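Researcher: Next entry in the queue.
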Amino acid sequence: MLRTFVVLLLSGAVCAQQTPAPTALDLVKQGQKLNSEGKQDEALALYRQALEVSPDLYEAHLESGIALDLKGNYAEARQHLTKAVELAPAAAKQQALRSMAFSYAFEGNASEAAKFEQQVFDARMFAHDFIGAAETANELARIYLESGDPTNAYKWYQTGYETAQHKPDLSDADKNLWLFRWEHAQARIAARTGKADEARQHVAAAKSALDKANNPDQARFFPYLTGYVAFYTGDYKTALADLQKADQRDPLILALLGETYEKSGDRSQAMDYYRKVLTSNAHNPTNAFARPLAEKKLAGKS
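Model: Structure for this entry, 302 residues:
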């Protein structure tokens, strides 16, 4: 009996020795899962452990910055994101630069965001990745627009449209897709600047281009457009109807619905939509504008 006990004890000790401790990268991956579930504090605790083991781990700095932005700790987030930009391997450099841009977008600071988006745009142009560069231009344009700078938004949306045309083998369908995006952008800019008739003209042009593009995946962006234009031109009934047909996973659409309900006098529904916004833990331009707005509204600060 004693011999059996000793054998079992030794075999247990061997098994324990064979179970490796999590690596720094393992800790980051565990943290990413927690962050996606809205558990930023728990995620950050794991990222800190990872950085104790590996102080120059790019992924740990990047993910720390993302989690801190979602918590609203922007200055601390950018300390980590600055390190991420410095440490990023070549294949991840653009990811790090865009994450820094988004961090500034969370504060509505488009001019600082532009410094990092510009680097991504330039790198893609240098590589003759015209579609990637065009997408970056549109991303920056959206940051400008939602930060309240329609002039620079127009400039960068136009740059995005013109850059896409440089692709030598751009199909007719894709030409119409980029025309749809350009008209979509001009309609939103016109609505934000009080030009309702001009906005409606661009909406009609966008619909025509979308039909010619024959791209079902893009159809979901049309009710967002009509809802957006309706909201910013004061037609809240249409805005509600159209935004509810748009992508309900997009936090900016949810935030717009919250604002529309608020403008319509239904504060209870508005608060429900602001709470839905906070279920998104994405680190992208749409959440960069939706999340701070929802937090302020729920806190009764605006």
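Model: Residues 19-88 form a domain with the Serine Threonine Protein Phosphatase 5, Tetratricopeptide repeat fold (CATH 1.25.40.10).
Researcher: Noted, moving on.
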